[in-house]
Amino acid sequence: MNLRSSVLHVRPTKKDPMSLRLSLLCRTGPWAFQSRSIVVPFRFVCVKTRQQNQTSEDTEMAATKASLVYTIYRALSYGLSPLLYLHLRWRKILGLEHQLRWPERLGRASLPRPPGQLLWFHAVSLGEGVAAIPVIKECIRKKPELNILMTTTTASAFEVIKNRLPCEVIYQFAPIDTPNAVDAFLGYWKPNAIVLVESELWPNLIMDASRKGITLALINARMSTKSFKRWSRPWLLPLISLMLSKFSMIIPLSTMQAVNFQLLLAPPSIINSSGDLKFVVEEFVSEEEMRSIEDLKVQLACRKVWMASSIHKGEEEVILAVHEVLIQEHPNLVTIIVPRYTHHGQQIAHKLQKEGQSVALRSQGHKITPGTNIYVVDTLGELRHLYRITPIAVIGGSFLPGFTGHNISEAAAAGCAVLTGQHVGHFSSMISEMQQLNPLSVLQVSGQVELQEALEIVFRDNKVLEARREAAKQAYHCLSRGTVTRVWNLLDSQLLKHALS
């Protein structure tokens, strides 16, 4: 379906007469049970209303303005190319780019292009890349004759995703958005269609692909609050409108994201729904990983365990403060800390060791002994397996202002009791959908005190813990069911039939 299958109500807000509240009720599809509302500045709705009554002169003026803004962007990106090249070299020195394959970021391919038609999937980082893998596998099952190219931008994503992709998929780093890099990349790979994941809206890539007659799709599409405000500025709105008009299909990850894209003047006819791909969790574990996780499970036997995952800088103070309180009541407690970035984990471990605490560091192969109460995981790609050995998962990136949360579906799929902070960004849609199905599925806490109180309750009352674990797992299964099939059917019917004809 698209938003034309929904009911959209607009009414003034009580607090701010210059704002309007948009309430949207979907009648069909995976969000049929949802009724949502969003408050937007009056000028955004005015822009949408004016669009419906634009004269040909207004349309021409908007197109001229968009073309001018893009021309400026293209000139700037071309002029800054030498500096961006130096920046990439510096990132390579710092270990942030692949030591051997970093030239791929300049559009220089390291693998041959096979003959035949080619579909390019692009995701910025690990989370988006993992979300795309089930769709890629479905594409291979349904169209085995089609060549698949997958790109990401970060080295950390590369190290994990390369082991999860089917062997027939070509994996490269994506080009930076400069005219030369994009032109070299498109000229070499010559994709028939491009599927961008989530929020990868780069002007040179989109405009160049459109000029070359390459069809474009945006799946699991989202627009953060910060990005939405930036693109809504008068001098950028024509550009984003022009870019979105080049897509043949946009599949937002939630109803509210669909509203955001329409407010940014995306054609309503290309907006469809399918559900959030980040709810889809695929099982992938090697024999070596399985042995390692099982060994860790044995070490944690008869211990009370909870895990804080995807922890960002500063959040470890919250987690460790809660740990200090809990361990007074539960001396056999083990707190597992999984930082978002591996070097942060090493910093945490070294600091605690200097303080005289017994800390085990996973990258060093340390064992959890009877005297170990903190286990720091400073490795990549193991998070979904670690959720299997802990009954409680606290999802980080959500406890300090400015953070935007992380995916909770992997923890829910593993049957963890799921807790998170209040600063969750676009993951608020995921949390809301799960809570609507079962209020016990996700617990949001405001900070250290509430987190400590919530953990004390689930440690004290096993019935409460089991109820939360079961609620999270059931909500996950309900929301993940059929999502990949819906996305594939939309890609096949509205993108590939045109691109491959």
Automatic annotation (TrEMBL):
Annotated InterPro entries: Glycos_transf_N, Glycos_transf_N_sf, Kdotransferase
Top EC class, one word: transferase
Catalytic activity: lipid IVA (E. coli) + CMP-3-deoxy-beta-D-manno-octulosonate = alpha-Kdo-(2->6)-lipid IVA (E. coli) + CMP + H(+)
EC number: 2.4.99.12
Pfam families referenced in this protein's UniProt entry, alphabetically: Glycos_transf_N
Annotated site residue numbers, Transition state stabilizer: 198, 278
Top-level taxon: Eukaryota
Keyword entries, A-Z: Transferase
Catalytic-site annotation from UniProt: 128 (proton acceptor)
Molecular-function annotations in GO: Kdo transferase activity
GO process annotations (BP): lipid A biosynthetic process
Annotated 3-deoxy-D-manno-octulosonic-acid transferase N-terminal domain residues: 101-280
Gene3D superfamilies per record: 3-Deoxy-D-manno-octulosonic-acid transferase, N-terminal domain, Glycogen Phosphorylase B
GO annotations of cellular component type: plasma membrane
Keyword Transferase recorded: yes
Family: Belongs to the glycosyltransferase group 1 family. Glycosyltransferase 30 subfamily.
Stated name of the protein: lipid IVA 3-deoxy-D-manno-octulosonic acid transferase
Originating species: Cannabis sativa
Gene that this polypeptide is encoded by: LOC115708830
